[in-house]
Amino acid sequence: MGRRLVIVTWVVVLLAAGCGQAGQQRAIETAVAGTLTARPAVTLTAIAVAQPTLAPRPTLPAATPAPTAPARRLTVPATVPPATPAPTAPSIGTQADCLRWDEARAYEGQTRCVCGLVVQATYAAQSNGTPTFLNLGGRVTDNARFTVVIWGEHRPNFDPPPEQAYRGKTVCVIGRIRLYRGVAEIHIQSPAEISVE
After folding, report:
1. How far apart are CA 171 and CA 119, in angstroms?
2. Looking at the domain 99-196, which fold is it?
3. I need a surface site. Which of 75, 98, 157, 178 has the fewest CB within 10 A?
4. DSSP helix/strand/coil, 3
5. How far apart are CA 117 and CA 138, in angstroms?
6. Are 16 and 51 in contact (CB under 8 A)?
7. Which of 164, 115, 165, 163 has the alpha carbon at shortest distance from 140?
8. CB count, 10 Å around CB of 130?
9. What are phi and psi of 174, to 5 degrees?
10. Dihedral sign for Cα atoms in the order 173, 177, 178, 180
């Protein structure tokens, strides 16, 4: 009940602040009516608040319009310098621009383009994450190989399936080079990150 009285008191204060004398009295009586039935000891004088008086606003002299300057013509140079191109993400280059698959291990942690022949392509449907592995330069038993990994969640982005589309072809991929159990690899998510040479 104590909270209700405090809330009602603030409602009365807020309602009464913007009303005239008669309006204040009606707002107080309306708001307190519910609390008087539960707590008859509450009186109107306990929560009535005096209305603040505001000083009259000073009147400002009429503003004089500011002088206007004559209109100017803007001249644009005949040749506009070319805009600086926005930086772009690294793109897949040609074999001449990219690392060979056997050089990738030395660039661990860097985003690079790597090219090579897909010697083995496997969809591991029973493995955790259902990855597709594209092994460049060597088979899965060769730790000197380079592997392109496409996780199952990204597999629908490739049509036809990547193990069919890239097997036996020379490809270039772009991404961050990682080492997994001594084998360099790049994880890709879409065909935009791999090209057939």
Report:
1. 11
2. OB fold (Dihydrolipoamide Acetyltransferase, E2P) (2.40.50)
3. 75
4. helix
5. 9
6. yes
7. 163
8. 14
9. -125, 140
10. positive
State pTM to two decimals.
Answer: 0.54
- Domain extents for the chain? 2-47, 99-196
| DSSP per residue, 55-114 | PPPPPPPPPPPPPPPPP------SSPPPPPPPP-------TTTSEEGGGGGGGTTSEEEE
What DSSP state is assigned to residue 135? E
The token pair at 51 is 């209305």
171 forms beta bridges with: 116, 196
**Count of CA atoms in the C-beta half-sphere (13 A) of 99:** 24
Decide if 181 contacts 122 (C-beta within 8 A).
no
pLDDT values of the chain reduced to their tens digit, one per residue, 197 residues: 454 444 444 444 444 445 555 555 555 555 555 544 444 444 444 444 455 556 666 666 666 666 666 666 655 555 555 555 544 445 566 666 799 999 999 999 999 999 999 999 999 999 999 999 999 998 877 778 999 999 999 999 999 999 999 999 999 999 999 999 999 999 999 999 999 98
Quote the crossing angle between the two packed helices 2-17 and 21-38, to the nearest 10°.
170
- The residue assigned the tokens 């009365």 is 12
